[in-house]
Amino acid sequence: MATRFVGRATELDLLGKRLERVGTTGGGRALAIRGRRQVGKSRLVQEFCGRAEVPYLFFTATKGASPVEAVTAFLAELRESDLPVDHELIPGEATGNWADAFRVLASVLPDRPVVVVLDELPWLAEQDERFDDALQTAWDRLLSPKPVLLVLLGSDIHMMERLTAYDRPFFGRADTMALGPLNPAETGRALGLGPADAIDAHLVSGGLPGILRAWPRGTPALDFIKQECADPASPLFSVPEATLMAEFPAPDRSRRVLEAVGSGERTHANIAAAAGGRADLPSGVLSPLLRRLVDEKRVLVADSPLSTQPGKPALYRVDDSSLRLYLAALRSASELVRRGLPASAVFRRVRRHWSSWRGKAVEPLVRQALELAAAAGDLPWEEVEAVGGWWNRQFDPELDLVGCDRAPVARTVHFVGSIKWLSAPFDKHDLAALIKAAPRVPGYSSGLVAVSLSGVDAEGLDLVWGPDDIVNAWES
């Protein structure tokens, strides 16, 4: 299992540089880290604190706690930490006032660099509408003049972005970091898997450490799913389920829209029909819900056709591939497991969805890998900066890959391509279909690309990629 800490070298380095500046200047610095649940924010910062060899306080808020309970817990954690120079200065009873709690914190800080971590910060702001003001005042007057690195963590991405927005008290006071999942190369190293299996594991886990920690080293994705089908409490089920419940605790319209997309509906019309029940959701209702799920919740992505002309329609997908698999197949599987069906029977149902699900789920990963390779100068086309797909309103044709000099509307289309993520190689029939469809893309002139799980059995392509190339894109 991936029990040791893997990856995050860049993030650890950034945290280390900020702590180094604290020691050099003698003044405080603040950093706000946001990211989805189970992406490893707390684990990253705990690892950093353990390596930093300086006193630290790591306080994690509890959802639903009252301000009095939160402050009491904060002071108790402070009392137990190695931070205070004088533990007698920490009161035994809390007032429930965050301004007073921060004054206590400032009064016991030593004169050497320390780290103070406030985890699940949005929950503190939910509990007390004056928390943001108290934090800003304490930082300006008491904490920033001291050698302290203040790290603020939160899983509510929208609220964490609001924390440092221009109209909020903490504006201009903290650097920001968005923490994403582990990439396919890191996933492969964590699990000891080769490129093809590493990509499968990344798609199944979403690169989330909360799932990877339960994954036996060297185990391919389907084998892992098969063994987890015998465990109704498996992180494979519980991690995406917890994400769903945290973001959408009530089965409202937003959740029905997300579930419709997760079940495979991609267009506005199909989502409206699937999420509306007996009648389609009206556009005036559905469009704002989709915008919220894309822009605020960040659980959906809206992909638009990429070419030298603006294109429609947008196609929607679930951003987190582990949640996407859960909604497509694992949720019903977990229900069957809880009902006592044999694991073998449950796995057979999941297995039926595997090839089609994986074939679509790998597409955004391939596009991202090609963009990384282009940025590193590893593609034949130097000016490529954006890689997407292209389709018309009839979805005839629908091309997996389009490489352009910019997005959303390009000046130049440098290549088009196809992804074939099956046990059979990309062959001359696939090439003939690609050659026929390519001229339909506005702005296309030349450049053909094939990305295949099982190799290529055709000639005349300008670029051929396999699993090794995809994983290597994150190694550059």
Write a brief structural summary.
The protein is of the alpha/beta class. It has 19 helices and 14 strands.
Detailed description of the structure:
The chain starts with 8 loop residues before the first helix and ends with a helix. Helix 1 (9-25) packs across helix 2 (41-52) and helix 8 packs across helix 9 (195-205). The chain has helices spanning 9-25, 41-52, 67-80, 98-108, 121-127, 131-143, 157-163, 184-191, 195-205, 209-212, 221-228, 235-247, 253-262, 268-276, 283-296, 321-338, 343-375, 428-437, 467-472; strands at residues 29-34, 56-60, 114-119, 148-154, 175-178, 300-303, 315-318, 386-391, 398-404, 413-420, 426-427, 448-452, 456-457, 463-465. The chain has a five-stranded parallel β-sheet, with helices on both faces. A five-stranded mixed β-sheet has the order 8-9-10-12-14, with helices on both faces. It is of the alpha/beta class and 476 residues long. The protein has three domains: 9-178, Rossmann fold; 184-354, no CATH class; 360-472, no CATH class. A hairpin with a 6-residue loop joins strand 8 (386-391) and strand 9 (398-404).
Topology:
Elements: H1 9-25, E1 29-34, H2 41-52, E2 56-60, H3 67-80, H4 98-108, E3 114-119, H5 121-127, H6 131-143, E4 148-154, H7 157-163, E5 175-178, H8 184-191, H9 195-205, H10 209-212, H11 221-228, H12 235-247, H13 253-262, H14 268-276, H15 283-296, E6 300-303, E7 315-318, H16 321-338, H17 343-375, E8 386-391, E9 398-404, E10 413-420, E11 426-427, H18 428-437, E12 448-452, E13 456-457, E14 463-465, H19 467-472
Parallel strand pairs: 1-4, 1-5, 2-3, 3-4, 10-12, 11-13, 12-14
Antiparallel strand pairs: 6-7, 8-9, 9-10
